[in-house]
Amino acid sequence: MNEGSKDFALGLIIGGLIGAAVALLYAPMAGVDARRRVGEKAGEFADDARGKATEVAGSVRGRAGEVVGTVRERAKETVDQARSGIEDLRGRFSASVDAGREAAQEKQEELEQRVEESAAPVIRPDTA
């Protein structure tokens, strides 16, 4: 039963109880009998209303539990996706850093080789 149906049913019961109480008040009978009947009916109505309120409260608790469970599941999924994305980015970053280091090392070796090749021979005065 959905929320709107429950509200309608509860309103229908309460309205019926109020209508019955009013009918009893206007029914032709002795004052003592009428008051006694109204008191009895009021007690019955109160019991019915308590029962319905308990039923609705239980239903609301159940639905709230379901919603909390769903929210927890979705939050966990989101956190897991975020962690997975972070791990992916870490891997990419590490690979980029390693590639950069390797390229820098290669360039350094290339430049050192060029310097050695282009350097003029050193003539020392004591050996000449």
Estimated radius of gyration: 43 Å
Instruction: List segments where confidence is low: pLDDT < 50 over at least 5 consecutive residues.
Output: none
Averaged pLDDT, please?
A: 82
General form: rod-shaped
Strand content: under 5%
Order of helices and strands: HH
**What structural category characterises the helix and strand content?**
mainly alpha
Tally of discrete structural domains: 1
From the N-terminal CA to the C-terminal CA, the straight-line distance is 109 Å
Give the tally of β-strands.
Answer: 0
Number of helices: 2
Helix share bin: over 70%
Give the biggest beta sheet: none
Please describe what this structure looks like:
The protein has 128 residues and is mainly alpha-helical. The chain has one domain (8-115). The protein contains two helices and no strands. The chain has helices at 3-26, 31-118. Helix 1 (3-26) runs antiparallel to helix 2. The longest helix has 88 residues, at 31-118. The chain is rod-shaped and about 145 Å long.
Give a quick summary of the entry:
With 128 residues, the protein is mainly α. The protein has 2 helices and no strands.
